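Narrative of activities, Objective 1.

The group set out to show that a structural description can be obtained from nothing but a protein's sequence at a throughput compatible with the screening campaign. Below is one input-output pair from the validation batch, recorded exactly as produced.
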Amino acid sequence: MIDKNSIFKVFIKEIVLEKENRTLSQMYFANSLSLGFQIEQIISLDKIILTTIFRSIIAKRFAQSVPDSYRDCERFKKYRL
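Output recorded for this entry:
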């Protein structure tokens, strides 16, 4: 069984609270948190957590190959989360 609380605490600490150290993909993830589900809903749904973890890992790897400039990232809109 997945410990939902510990997994979510890691995401909150690394992505939501540490705004100054966010990568591009983490910003997208944090935006999806604020626009999508409330925190309580995410904690209560295993499937959402697993999907979020998977998408976050993929996004981190993708973001490493994408320039940080917004103009350059416009070309990659279809790959955004």
